[in-house]
Amino acid sequence: MNIKYYTCDATVKKFHETGGTINSIRPMDPRPKDSDAFYRRLMEYGGDIDNISATQISESDSKHLFFIHIGFLDAIQHITHPFVEEAILKCYNKGITVVIDATWERVTENCVPAPDAPNHEDSYFVKGHRNRNETVFDRVQHLIHEDYFKVVVGQDLRYVDLPYKYKRYLVYHNMFAGMVYAFHKPINKNILYPHTETTHIEKRYNFSCMIGKPLRSHRLNFLTDIFYRNLVDDKFLLTGIPIIHKKEFDFNDCVMSRTRTGGGGKKITCDVGGIKIEVTDTQHAESVLGNIMAEMIERNIDFDQEEFILSWLKTDKYLREKLNLDEWKPHLTQYLNDNIEHIISKMRFVNGYTEDVLLSTTGHLSDVRINGNSPIDDRLGIYYSNIKGKYCNHGTKSTWWRNNFKWDQVIPTGMYESHISISLETYMTGTFYTEKIWKPIFAGIPVINVCTPNFIESFEHMGFRPYYNIFDYSYDKHENYFDRVSGVVDNIERLSKEKNLESLINKDTDAIQHNQKQLIKIVNDTTWLQKL
């Protein structure tokens, strides 16, 4: 099937004139960005919607799409913004399907399958029940076209509790799996892939864990527990994204900046050291900290950044509420209070070579070497292998990559060199899986997932096999999230005492290889495009 996608220069221009943000909405730009590139490798560029006529569309055998990217699904209510709505109506008039891309975040918190969608929505829910997603769809109902409107989500539709009248417009696409695959697609000279019985990679680490942003309640709870049990040593590769990097305030357009993230939600006044700033209850902790520090810089208040961060971590009431510390086991709360500096300092931010990443004096990430000889360069070529040259020449590619280093996409060589990986998923509830679990699966590494209750049911439904010979999954049934975290740490503690870890893992070789192949099968399945 030939698929063409379109952009709208007029809409993009108005979008940038607003400061580049309208409540998490972003119309597709001619420049590659995040998921755009993964879509584009499967499509042809059709041009600007203002330069194509309804007649040309009707006479074409292609499928014609116009993408609008949003964050959470409830941001769909903002497509009613005048110039976004104008572009949508233009598409409908010409027979171009408007595709709302909501793959980057979860849709619902469901961890058990929702009822099968009937043909009449009245029987779908208990009478009188409504949820937030239904409400936001009501607000855009006048913009939903029976034939030319679709919403792509990154969560299995079985776990999306939405009335049939709206759910029928949803299409499931595992964007994060595609993202990892597009960047680490196999190449003959890359010995790190695929996992085979004849490929032997020296295992320097027993465990690897890519924490991501550490100031999430479940992640910090996990970190605190593994340090409390003295499980972190030179055989444990522990990497994460810095809370606030020292250079971020010199280059506040840097991809790692926290100062401009967050939005929506209830307004809260946060007071740290006499500095008061208005934040929202939806902002992540790093974002709140970034806002506070930016305010201090704006007021020319002198402070030591490291000392301030530690003081904030130990004393800020708002942060402690965000971390749900009252729900932690008392001994872990006390250990965190006494050792937070030690815990945070042990995480490394690394590149694809498992080398420490720093920002250079030019504001670029200094880890990338464009020289044609390294695994990173090979992957860069793969990443753009199906992106047409007219979008960006080689120089632009190098510049774009240097300025848009995505930790989400990088599999450090250290992960390949580990026996077991721990995946700390984004959310405490809901069956929404990101690159955090797909990276180790792609690398051929057994992974234990700190995620939703009933993970096994969802994992197997996607065609994957649990690693029953390695892990004890009894924690999977615990409703309390912190009990599940503790169950995962129990597994790590037990496995850390295993005298022959490699022999134990080899018992699950079939599952390791099956899951790697299943992941590749999923990302190469383009039937979701046929549903658009």
Brief overview, please?
This protein is α/β, with parallel strands linked by helices and 532 residues long. It is built from 21 helices and 13 strands.
Question: What labels would you give this structure?
Answer:
532 residues, four-stranded parallel sheet, single chain, alpha/beta
In quaternary terms, these chains amount to single chain
Counting structural domains, the number is 4
Query: How many H/I helical runs?
Result: 21
Shape: globular
Summarize model confidence as the mean pLDDT: 79
The chain-level structural class is alpha/beta
Q: Please describe the biggest sheet, giving its number of strands, its sense, and whether it closes into a barrel.
A: 7 strands, mixed
Give the CA-CA distance, first to last residue: 12 Å
Share in helix? 25-40%
Number of strands: 13
Which consecutive residue ranges, at least 5 long each, have pLDDT under 50? 118-129, 187-195, 251-256, 361-404
Determine the strand fraction and express it as a percent band.
Answer: 5-15%
* Backbone CA Rg: 24 Å
